[in-house]
Amino acid sequence: MLIACIQMEPLIGETARNVARSLDFARQAAERGARLVVLPELANTGYVFETRAEAEALAETVPSGPTVAAWSRLCEELDLHLVAGIAEKAGDKLFNSAVLIGPGGCVGVYRKMHLWGDEKKVFTPGDLPFPVYDTPIGQIAMAICYDGWFPETYRLYALNGARLVCVPTNWVPMPGQPDDRSAMANTLVMAAAHTNGLVIACADRVGVERGQPFEGQSLIVDKTGWPLAGPASRTNEEIILADITLEPRKGIGADNDVLSDRRTDIYAEMLGLDRTDNP
Amino acid sequence: MLIACIQMEPLIGETARNVARSLDFARQAAERGARLVVLPELANTGYVFETRAEAEALAETVPSGPTVAAWSRLCEELDLHLVAGIAEKAGDKLFNSAVLIGPGGCVGVYRKMHLWGDEKKVFTPGDLPFPVYDTPIGQIAMAICYDGWFPETYRLYALNGARLVCVPTNWVPMPGQPDDRSAMANTLVMAAAHTNGLVIACADRVGVERGQPFEGQSLIVDKTGWPLAGPASRTNEEIILADITLEPRKGIGADNDVLSDRRTDIYAEMLGLDRTDNP
Description:
By secondary structure, chain A is α/β, with parallel strands linked by helices. Chain A has helices spanning 15-31, 52-58, 66-78, 119-122, 151-159, 184-196, 264-277; strands at 2-7, 36-38, 81-90, 93-102, 105-111, 132-135, 138-142, 164-168, 199-203, 208-209, 212-213, 219-221, 227-229, 238-243.
């Protein structure tokens, strides 16, 4: 099954333009054979909000808002699945969310669990415990950007049966990054794929927004941990495509399966200690 | 502080020769300024035991056996710390262990938590819950080889205050490894260091033993996740050295610390589910 990640540059506040551009890219990817398309984090609004009010004015309800409606029409027309980052308004709360849309409409939503930097001033932390969605093309989960700094995210998805994790992201530079190496985010994704037997598809944005540069380098990683496509460039809008297989998970060796080899006896004891320290 | 990893080739069953060779290498590293030296997994015995009886005949009590005594004498003489893999006999059990030795003798032991392949026929899984040892040179923990496939290992060490994790290892080739990339094990170590703010020092073995090839590529990784030394070659015995700083852990950004940003509320709920499934 061919899947695509769209590396694009949303412009802050220009929702109609951003959605139109995302539809163009998704259509191009589908014409090249993609059955599933992944867009960046906050693909419709841009990322660097100056105030919570600015974000609130741009956020939409899910699935009833106009952006999900537009993405859903394309998915219906092209028999496509799509994962995309969106600013979600739910009552008086805002979430940094991702939606999974299929040919029949919105399948599910993920709300970013781990908020980065000024996101904490705008968004409420996610309240949906790592949902895995059963679709005709496989067991799909979602994570967003800084969620990838928490190996817990991928581990819990693997334990819950996910085969593919789609990652809308807006990666920012990390300290110590050598110029000649791909972003540390790429390393984290490879490690997560390998240690959990997951295919992971990351769509990053590019550009500089209100002084904040982004990393690009979108990539699609096989369950062995090695890239199938990408990393894409640091600066250019582009589509990356990979042919993936979502076969049943199997062990890493004749006598070993990473999930069943976990020492849950010890982890639970130690997590218990941690809960006391960090309630 | 300068530290060293010794990439060497133990020969199966030749304990006296292996220990003598490890002492030579450790002395060379100390002469080059190393205050701490890390040796590979099962550095005294070799790795591929044909039977449990073969392993039992080679295993020693800790700290009273002759190998720990020999390593301890060197540490006392050179005011050195040393971490090394050893086959440990404790009553009627065998453990794939690592010892931490200082100038005053044996400081502590770690027993491999996650056993790989035929190790399950020889060793008992570790029963010491991820100990962190407070030494004059810093908070030191140990992990062995396949333990690194479990992000839980490093996360629990970071939560318990470790600054440096020493990894005696016998890495074997993983499926899908491209010829032009460093071992996937290197990627796992970089990700673990970055997501936990840990310095990690891995001493691998080289050579082919009873048909089993090993990966070499020992490396020392900074808390940013980027290598300070190595990866070493795939095939040659060598010493790698790095100057490390074990300063107090700090956040990854102005508003973010990976450990305090963890969603322990959600993880605990989901680990609870897992304990029911995998008791």
